[in-house]
Design a protein that fits this description.
The structure is a single chain. The protein is α/β, with parallel strands linked by helices. The longest helix is centred in the C-terminal third of the chain and has 19 residues. It is built from six helices and 28 strands. Helix 3 runs parallel beside helix 6. Bound molecules: adenosine monophosphate and magnesium ion. The site of adenosine monophosphate has 20 residues, from helix 3. Magnesium ion binds next to loops.
């Protein structure tokens, strides 16, 4: 059994160079940039007004200004402003020659073609040419995850398509002679397949292209055939169930027979101790224990960071600092536990009522995992903890 940190170290060593492909701007959300985004232009592209108001010379101490022009956003000013003069200007419009200050509308009054000051506005209210970005600046780097602001930034650079990393193909197999698909009748001794769906959803949410190869009975030949098909097609293969020490847990042996090099097959983690990780060439294989909370947790802790790596993204989970709302205690401390908790906006962390790794219905109220390190038996009410957002 290896410590969680050791398993993470092994997974961190994996290197992968994903290929890139061209996508249209609106198809780029949640993808990872496969190129640097350079600016070809100044941002803003000209000195512009930050307010609706009147453009004047800043050294003009007149109280009344003749309005020589009205400048709408998108128009090019036709007249310069001199002493005692101003141009009425809208937010985002280009500043006229002679003006280096905009007096906001709220401290003025308009009368007989003139603007009269009624209050004081000391700000210059100008966004200057190139103050945000200069031509040639790298505005987004290769490997950056594209969220809504990034979509906007790329649009503001005038790009309608660009390179992102290709989505990794993840193959999923569920093993277990007791497993049936939702929609079918449940007979005695059977349970519904939840793992295939939860893992697929996690992989899709991370950004993968998923192939679900179906449910396989606990039969060596059937499992081997399914695994070898997926190994040939996918960058990552996730196998649910059959990795423990039961008489029908065939997966680790089959992986070895299929030419997969196992890097670990037992981790001091709770839930999910029998997790298996191996590689065949550049294909990564995880054997996930069948209990649904184990599968979910192991995906979050071990699979997700590696899957992001296949997408060209260097992922670090977000940790939230909180205070324990009640005591958490456990009887054994040989393994590092990940406990489903609720992080509340008041900063308190509340462990969920949780009956163990089969208790999938404990998860909907949880929004984070609390890591309880090996050697620690309790986290008492009031202690400061960092929880991992899920
Ligand atoms: P295993 O890892 O195959 O020993 O399975 C451990 C537990 O998880 C058993 O109670 C299984 O019935 C259950 N289990 C295995 N696969 C699934 C699945 N796909 N969906 C829901 N539960 C499962
Ligand atoms: Mg099984």
């Amino acid at each position: 059994m290896i410590p969680v940190e050791e398993a993470e170290k092994i997974l961190n060593k994996i290197t992968y160079r994903p290929e890139t492909e061209e996508v249209a701007l609106m198809d780029s959300l949640d993808r990872v940039l496969g190129q640097n985004i350079f600016s070809a232009i100044n941002m803003p592209p000209f000195d512009k007004s930050a307010m609706d108001g009147y453009a004047v010379a800043s050294n003009d101490d007149s109280k009344k200004f003749e309005i020589v022009e009205v400048i709408a956003a998108g128009n090019v000013p036709q007249k310069a402003v001199g002493k005692g003069q101003c141009s009425k200007i809208m937010t985002g419009a280009m500043l006229p020659p002679g003006a280096d200050r905009v007096i906001k509308k709220e401290v003025t009054e308009e009368k007989d073609g003139c603007m009269v000051l009624t209050g004081d506005d000391r700000n210059l209210n100008i966004c200057y040419l190139g103050e945000d970005v200069r031509p040639g600046d790298v505005v987004l780097k290769k490997g950056h995850l594209i969220r809504p602001p990034e979509v906007g930034i790329i649009a503001s650079m005038g790009l309608s398509s660009f390179q992102v990393y290709k989505k990794p193909r993840v193959g999923i197999i569920t093993t277990g002679s007791e497993i049936v698909s939702p929609g079918q009748r449940l007979r005695k001794g059977q349970i519904y397949n939840s793992n295939a769906y939860s893992i697929s959803a996690q992989a899709i949410q991370t950004g993968a292209e998923v192939t679900f190869a179906g449910i396989v009975k606990d039969d060596k030949t059937c499992i081997k055939e399914k695994i070898s098909n997926l190994l040939a097609e996918c960058q990552m293969v996730l196998i649910s169930g059959g990795v423990s020490v039961g008489d029908y847990d065939f997966v680790p042996g089959i992986l070895k027979d299929s030419g997969v090099k196992l890097h670990f097959d037992n981790v001091a983690i709770q839930p999910g101790k029998p997790t298996v990780f191996g590689t065949r060439g550049s294909t990564l294989v995880f054997g996930l224990p069948g209990n649904p909370v184990s599968t979910f947790t192991i995906f979050e802790v071990f699979v997700k960071p590696v899957l992001y790596k296949l997408m060209g993204y260097d992922y670090t989970p977000l940790l939230l600092k909180g205070v324990m709302k009640k005591d958490f205690k456990r009887k054994r401390s040989v393994r590092t536990a990940f406990v489903p908790v609720r992080y509340n906006n008041d900063g308190f962390v509340e462990p969920m009522e949780y009956h163990g790794s089969a208790h999938l219905t404990a998860l909907p109220q949880a929004n984070a995992l609390l890591k309880v390190p090996t050697g620690e038996y309790e986290l008492l009410k009031g202690s400061v903890v960092y929880v991992r957002q899920i």
